[in-house]
Amino acid sequence: MKGKAQEKIILVTNDDGVTAPGIRALIEAVSPLGKVVVVAPDSPQSGKGHAITIGVPLRLDPVDIFEGIEAWQCSGTPVDCVKLARDKILHRLPDICVSGINHGANHSINVIYSGTMSAAMEAAIEGVPSVGFSYLDYSFGADFSLPQEVAYTVTKKMLESDLPEGTLFNVNIPIIKKEDFKGIKICRQANAKWVEAFDERRDPRGKKYYWLTGEFINRDNGEDTDVYALANNYASLVPVQFDLTDYKLKKKIETDWKL
What we know:
alpha/beta
């Protein structure tokens, strides 16, 4: 007689902090699929990218804010959270890592800056199938019912599939009514970027300070991109890789350059 299959361990993290509504929504969405363990920053860490803490000690404390769920808050970055979860909390790799649900978009070039995606990427680097979820609604009181359905569907598919080592997905969900939602569209990352500037101001003592400002510009007319999908009532799912080698350019310079 075969023994009972071992329960899947689902590591949940984010970059908005352990008290953000989005992480609670994600925990509720994926809890039916396995044993959830939460390790998340103790404060917002948006835009931290793949930063790690090396100059100051890290703190890791248990928190009792999700009923029946083991949860920890970390003083470091989202990537720190994943590293500490593996080494000090789980003492093993999780079966899957889910990050989010982020308050705001992480489509196109935003994947480079995103702490949400960097947490998932860190787990993927370790060979763990991982996914970051982001909802285009920035408000604290956002309705996460549609993103929860998307998160459950994608996480379930991932757990049921034989995925390659290092699998990483970037999922974004539009702000629409459920009845207008067309489903999940598998996409490529759009060629889009922020055109940025700094707003210069002066404090009461006359010393200059700066606020980063910018406008998001989509330079991609493709109908297979994440930006297009989101504008047309789909959730976008982009398979992401962390090998940054430009193989096409590599092949060209191997031929053209005489080194």
